Amino acid sequence: MKRLCKSILFFSTLVMLSSCEKKEKATTISVKNTLDVERTFETVELTKSLLNLEDLSTTGILNTETNTLELTQTVDNDGDGVLDVILFQPKIKANSESTFKIVTVTEAEKPKAPELCYSRFVPERTDDYAWENNKVAFRVFGPTAQKMVEDNVAGGTLSSGIDAWLKRVEHPIINNWYKKEIETDGTYHEDTGEGLDNFHVGVSRGVGGIAVKVDSTYYFSKNYTKWRSITTGPLRTSFYLEYENWDAAGNTIKESKIISLDLGSNFSKFTTHIEGTNTIAAGLTLHEKDGDVIANGTDNWVSYWQPHADSELGTAIIAPKDYFVGFENYNVETKDLSNAYAHLKVTDNKTVYYAGFTWKKSGQFNSNLEWQKHLSDFSNKINNPLEVSLNE
């Protein structure tokens, strides 16, 4: 019995020492907000290399102030089967800093939330690629839709513009709307409570499609040719698009991009890789040209607020200050070629910008002035991101 008691005591001591050692080696991170506003719905990315971890699948983020686990999402960015980053959206008070502990968790212990950030390839509607979060929804058009137009087959679409789906609910609508359009007598062109698709793109740039300007003419690609889904989840959806090389007045343009949309944001982030030009222009269609084009060179955004059916619609391009170089209200007689453009610098074959919209009927922003304030606030945040540091 004495030997058994000694063995138990020895084992307990080892457990205590092991526990203490783990606590001493626990990794914490600090997230700092340098602005005088509270920060919410901003996604922080933590890489494997930053955390010095080989496997993120059992990684959790513990809020040391509330002693609760943060909602997280892990992402394999390059599709090699290995998780590259873990995402979370901390709430950080104005001019303050919060600490989070990196912990090991089981799948059952991880906080759960609806997958509101969603995207997918849509083969049942030619070859759209659609994406959404709890605020907005978008889609782009693929090679089958392009070929239908070129072969004079009804139902195709030839455009590299970005289409906006005007949702006014926070739950996902993409699958519902396609099913409604394809499998029932209803149509997503009519609003039955969730919103509708009544945004015309044509050959315009829609909400954030790009062009290359040579002299006084804008050139742009046709439909995307390749796609790859990267992630969907409670905090982010992202995917890759590639385009066939295209011509801009004798310059061969090579274009691909990663588009991501985070929870709570009205703006998709476009990380565009491009060769053959030193600048690009991201555009907003002017539709009937009955709205207000406003540009803010200080806060690096271009906006178009317009009447839209029985409501109003605001669209915008916002860029980090390192990429924004100017803007133009391009107004011509040819249908769908009038766009408000943000001119963007290409550095090392890359440029970054955000494009998105608000629909007054959704209740998010009720006036042009509210929308403009949001654009400047958003610009301030992307140009002053939350600062993350590792505490060892």
TrEMBL record:
<protein>
    <submittedName>
        <fullName>DUF4861 family protein</fullName>
    </submittedName>
</protein>
<dbReference type="Pfam" id="PF16153">
    <property type="entry name" value="DUF4861"/>
</dbReference>
<dbReference type="InterPro" id="IPR032342">
    <property type="entry name" value="DUF4861"/>
</dbReference>
